[in-house]
Amino acid sequence: MIPVAFDYYAPTSVDEAVALLREHDDAKVLAGGQSLMPVLRLRLAAPEVIVDLGRIEELNGIREDGDALVIGAMTPHSVVQADPLIAEHASLISLATATIADPQVRHRGTFGGSLAHADPAGDLPAVAVALDAFFVIAGANSRRTVGAADFFEGVFSTAIGEDELLVEIRVPKYTGWGAHYEKFNRVAQQWSIVAVAATVRLDGGTITEARVGLTNMGSTPIRATAVEQALVGQPATAEAVRAAAAHAADGTSPPTDLNGDADYRRHLASVLTRRAVLAAAGTG
Amino acid sequence: MTTTEDRPATEVGSPRRRKEDARLITGRTRWTDNIALPGMLHLAMVRSPFAHARITAIGTEAAKAASGVVTVLTGADLADEQGALPNAWAITPEQKAPVHPSIAVEHVAFAGEIVAMVVARTAAEANDAADLVDVDYEELPPVLDLKTAATDEALAHPDLGTNVSAVWTFDSAEAGTGQDVEAAISAARDGGILIEREIRQQRLIPAFMEPRSIAVDPTGEQLTVWSSTQVPHFVKIFIALVLGIPEHKIRVIAPDVGGGFGGKLQFTPEEVLTVIAARHTGKPCKYSETRSESLMAAHHGRDQWQQLTLAATKDGTVTGLKVELLADMGAYLGLVTSAIPLLGAFMYNGIYKFPAYHLSCTNVFTNKTWTDAYRGAGRPEATFAIERLMDELAVEVGVDPLEIRERNWIKHEEFPFATVSGLTYDSGNYEAATAKAKDLFGYDDLRAEQQKRRESEDPVQLGIGISTYTEMCGLAPSRWLGSMGYVGGGWEHASIRMLPTGKVEVITGTSPHGQGHETAWSQIVADRLGVAFEDIEVLHGDTQVAARGLDTYGSRSLAVGGMAVLAAADKVIEKAKPIAAQLLEANVDDLEFSGGRFGVRGTETGMSLGDLAFAVFQGHKLDAGAERSLDADATLDPDDFSFPHGTHLCAVEVDTETGAAKIRSYVSVDDVGTVVNPLIVEGQVHGGLAQGIAQALYEEAVHDESGTLLTGSFVDYLVPSPPDLPPFVTARTETPATTNQLGVKGVGEAGTIASTPAVVNAVIDAVRHLGVSDIAMPCTPYRVWKALKSAQQEGAQQEGGRS
User: Rounded to whole angstroms, how far apart are CA atoms A234 and B235?
Assistant: First the structure.
C-alpha cells in the first residue's frame, strides 16, 4: 500500500525540528519508522507533514552523566543492546532490547521512538517504568523533564506535547543489580501477550530492593509496586518470590484479545513475575 | 533397444543445488510486479468492508476528477461484460451455486469483495482516488457460523434459496468396497469400542510470499497477460471462456512466482478486471494486491467441522469409520472449492484396513471469503481426523499408540491393496518407515522421561505425538477426474528440443512457483539423454512456449509432468535412432544408446546425440524422407495416483503454568518413492512441516461477529518463522511407486499433511493425565491453559462429589 502524500522535512537540529512542529499543525515525527511506516502504508494515519529526525546527530548516542545514563532518543535498539555502559549499569535495558522483534527491526527502530510510541504491548515502556527513567522533552525555548510514572498517559499517548520532541532518556544507574525480562508471546516476532521487567538488588541471599514493570497489563506500562514491597527483605527463594509474585496483577485491568482474556493475563503476570524475579536474582 | 541400462544414473538421486535459486533468492528476476510497460496504467480496488450488504449507490465523481485518474468502473458498468467466474467441479449434478461476479453488481457476499476499480496513471494516484469512491451499502445480516448456515436460518445469498451447495456421500457397502458401517457401529456399541469426536478444522490463509499481481498488455495482436499464478494454462482458457476473447488471441505468462500453496490455483476476479481495464483503456494495465487485500480476499483454505465415529473391537481392531462433514465454501465457489472435501474423502481410512466406511459431506455457503485449495487440500483434514482417532483408540484399549496402528495397518506384503474407499495402493512399507522413525526419535527414552515428569508433577510436561500417514498424489488420471465431475483432464505435456550445438531445451506444462522443476527436470533429462546437466534449459509458464499443460498443484508435477518429460526424451531417442543408423551406415538393430551416444554394437563406431543434432540441423546427409528435427512432444495421462507415506514423531513440552506448547524434537521419515533430488525433497519436507505445524499451533483466520477479518495482518495471523520451529530430523525409506517409470510419488504436500496430527497428538499426550482429551486448533497457550483449568475444575468437582 502507498501512503497518502505528505510533505517531508529532515531537520539537522532539535531546534529546527521543534520549529517545524510548531509551524505545522498536522505533523508526525518519524524516528526509526518501525511503527509509523506500517500505519502510513495502511493509511490508518495520513499526516500532512513528516518530520524525520534521522539527520539530527545530537539525538544519537549513549553517555554517562554522574549517577545516570543518558540515552539519545534516536539511538537504535541494536546500539543500545550492544552498549557496555548499559550492560553494566542498566542490564534490564540490554536484556529487554534483545527481545524486540528481529535484527532488522532493531537496526532501524530507536530507543526513544519506541518509548514515545507508547504501545502498551511494546517492551521498553515497562522497563522505563521499572527503572524510574526520566524523559527529557524539548519545547520551543526550553526543556523539561518528566518521570516515567507521569510520562505514559494511555494507549499511544504520552506527556509529549504536540509541538514537543523527546530528546533523551535519563536512567539512574542500577550497578550490580540483577535483571531479567520475561517475555511471553506465541511467535518470536509477535508483541508481548504479557511481559515482566524485573531488576533486584541482593545482599547475601536477601532481596533489598526490587523494581518490577508489567508489559501489556493495561493501557500504560504498570509498575507492580505491591510485588516490589512484598519482595523487600525476603530471601530470593522460589517460595518467597512465588508469594510476592501472587500480587503482580493487583489493581490491573488487562485487555482481552485473540491471545487471551483478562483472567489469563492476570495469571500470566503472576507466573512471569515469579520467573522474572527469580531469574533476576540468579536463582531462577 | 537399450536406453539407460548400461549407464549408471549419475544425476537422478544427486543433491544438486537448484539452478533457479540464485535469481529467486536475490530477486534479480522478473516478478509480475516488476513489469513496467510504456504507458502502463495502474489499478486500485475498492472493496466492501461489510460481509453482507446490498449496494444502494456508488458515487464515482470525486474519484474520476482526482489527479491522474483515467477511469473508475463499478459493477453496474461491467455487469454485462464481466461474465461469471468459473467453478470447474460439480461434485453432484444438483450442485447449487450463486453467480460469482468479479465485481459485485448489487449484492456483496463477503468483506473484501470488489465493488469498484480505479484506473490511474500511477499506483499512488489509483490508491488516492480509491479512497474517494463513495459507496452506500444497506447492510444485511451476515451468515457466518458454519453450523447455523447449514440450517438455512439466514441466507448468505437470499436469491439462491439455501446455503447448501451440495451433499456428497460415499458408502462402502453401496460401492461394493466394504461392509455396512452402521452394522459395525451397532456391534461396537454392544461390547466393542465406539469413539465419537467432533473436530474443527480451522480456517487458514495460504499466505504465499509474493502477493498476487497481474499485468496485461492489450497492444499486440495477442493479448498478453502476466500473472503470479500456479495455473497459466487455466488462466488462458478461462479468459477466453469468461470474457469471450478467442483463445488463440491470448498469451498468458507466469513469470517467476513467489509461492502459491494452492492459493494461486485459481482464476481470480483481479485477473478478469485487469484484462477488462486494459480492454477499456487500450493501454497496458497492472494490478498488485497489498498484503492486507491478499489476506482478506485471496481464497482461504480448510474450514470444516468433522463429526467422526470410529467402531472397533475390544482389542482395538477397527471395524468401521463414519465421517460426517460440514465444509465452508465461503461466499462463492472458486475453481475447485466444492471438491476440496472430496479430495480428502478417499483418505480417511489412511494406511489402515478398515472393513466399513461411510462419508457424507455437506458443502455450505457463508458470508466469508471463498475457500479453495490450500496445501494438502482435503487430505490434511482426513489425515488429522484418523490419526487423532487412532490415538484415542489406543487410550481406550490401553496400549501404545504405535501398537494400535500396527494392529490395523496394511502390511508390506499385502500390496497392492484395495482400500475400503475404493483406491488401490500400489506399494508401501509402513513397518520400515515406523521402525526408522522410532529409532531416530529415541522413542523409548522419551516415553521414560515422560513417565518421570508425570510422577514428579513437573510443571513442564512431555507429550509424544504420532502420525502415520499416506496421501494420494499425482493429480490425476483424466478418467477418474471425469468420473468425479471435474470438467478438465489430469494429463501433462512435455517437449524436448535438440538444439544444433547439442544443448537441450525442455519445455514442461507444469508451472513451478518455487518447487525447483528446472533443476529436477534437468537431472531427469541429463540421465536419459546422456547430456550434461548444465547443457539443459527448462522452459515453462508461458503459453506461447509451453503451449500445452495443466500446471502445478496436488503434488502432480513430478509424478505426471516429470514422467511426460521422460516420455519425450524417449521419443527423441527413438526418433534419432534410424537417422544415426543411416549416418553410421549400420543396421538399426545393431545400435545401442548409452551415455548420450549411439554406438554400433561390438565396434568402436558411434556418434554422440549432440553431433547427431548438428547433422540433423544441417540436413546435408540425411535421407530424403528423414525429418530434419529430433524434437519430440509427449503427453502423459497417469494410470493411477501415487501414495507417499511415512511416520512422523513429535515431542512437545507443555508448560502447564502458561499453556505454552513447544516442540522439542521432530522426526519425519517419508517414503516418497524414488528421489530425483534429495535436497529438493528435504526442502519440501521442511516447508511442509512448518505449514502443518502452523495449523497445529499458530494459524487461524478469525472473523468478528460482523464478518470482518480480525486476523487481517501478520500481526494477528501468526505465520511461524525459523525461531519458532525446532530443528527437523528428516529421513527416508524408498519404496518405489509401481505406477510410473521412475517409481516417484510426490512430496509437495506430505509434510503439511503429516505434521498437524503429530503435533496435536503430542500436545494432548502431554496433558492427558491431567484430564484433557481434546484441544481445538490452533493449540494456543490460552486454549491449552483453559483446557487445563477446566479439567482441574472438573476433577475438583468429581472429588467433591465423592466426599
Answer: 71
Grid cell locating B497: 528440443
Tell me if chain A has a CB within 8 Å of the CB of B702: yes
Q: Which chain B residues contact residue A187 at CB under 8 A?
A: 698, 718-721, 723-724
> What is the mean pLDDT of each successive set of 10 residues along chain B, which is 803 residues long?
47 96 93 97 98 98 98 97 97 98 98 98 97 98 98 98 98 98 98 98 97 97 97 98 98 97 98 98 98 98 98 98 98 98 97 98 98 97 98 98 98 98 97 98 98 98 98 94 96 98 98 97 97 97 97 95 98 97 96 96 95 97 94 97 98 98 98 97 97 98 97 96 96 96 94 98 98 98 98 86 59
Q: Does residue B784 sit in helix, strand or coil?
A: helix
Task: Please identify which residue in the block is written with the cell numbers 512430496.
Answer: B747
CB contact under 8 A, A187 and B718: yes
DSSP string, B223-242: EEEEE--S-HHHHHHHHHHH
What pTM was estimated for this model as a whole? 0.96
If you measure CA to CA, which chain A residue comes closest to B660?
A: A186
Q: Cβ separation of B716 and A258 shorter than 8 Å?
A: yes
Measured distance CA(B360)–CA(B356) in Å, rounded: 14
* Residues of B in Cβ contact (< 8 Å) with A260: 781-782, 785
Can you read off the three cell numbers belonging to residue B420? 475400503
Cβ of A258 within 8 Å of Cβ of B698? The answer is no
Contact B781 A186 (CB under 8 A): yes
β-bridge pairing B223-227 and B213-217: antiparallel
Parallel, antiparallel or unpaired: strands B107-108 and B53-59: antiparallel
Q: What are phi and psi of A64, to 5 degrees?
A: -100, 140
Compute CA A149 distance to the chain's CA centroid, rounded to the nearest angstrom.
12
Percent of chain A at pLDDT above 90?
Answer: 98
Q: Where are the domains of chain A?
A: 7-52, 179-280
pLDDT in tens, B170-199: 999 999 999 999 999 999 999 999 999 999
Q: Indicate which of B691, B698, B718 best probes the interface with A, i.e. most A CBs within 10 Å of its own CB.
A: B718
The Cα–Cα gap between B755 and B749 comes to 10
pLDDT digits (tens, 9 = 90+) for A111-141: 999 999 999 999 999 999 999 999 999 999 8
Handedness of CA B609, B613, B618, B619 (dihedral sign): positive
Domains of chain B from N-terminus onward = 426-470+641-803 (3.30.365.10), 491-636 (3.30.365.10)
Q: How long is chain A?
A: 284
Q: Which residues 253-272 on chain A approach chain B with CB closer than 8 angstroms?
A: 258-261, 264, 267-268, 271-272
Architecture (CATH level 2) of domain A7-52: 2-Layer Sandwich (3.30)
CA B190 to chain centre: 41
Return the SS3 of A81: helix
Beta pairing class for B492-498 and B632-636: antiparallel
Residue of B nearest to A192 (CA): B715
CATH of A179-280 given 3.40.50.2000, 3.40.640.10, 3.90.1150.10, 3.30.390.50: 3.30.390.50
Rounded to 10 deg, the angle between the B232-243 and B269-281 helix axes is 60
Chain A contact present for B793, CB below 8 A: no
Nearest CA among A246, A244, A262, A281 for reference residue A193: A262
Domains A7-52 and A179-280 share a fold: no
What whole-number distance in Å separates Cα of residue B321 and Cα of residue B360? 12
Interface touch A187/B702, C-beta < 8 Å = no
The minimum CA-CA distance between B690 and chain A, rounded to whole Å, is 13
Provide ipTM, 2 decimals. Answer: 0.96
Residues A267, B785: C-beta atoms closer than 8 Å: yes
Q: Is there a contact between A258 and B290 if contact means CB atoms under 8 Å apart?
A: no
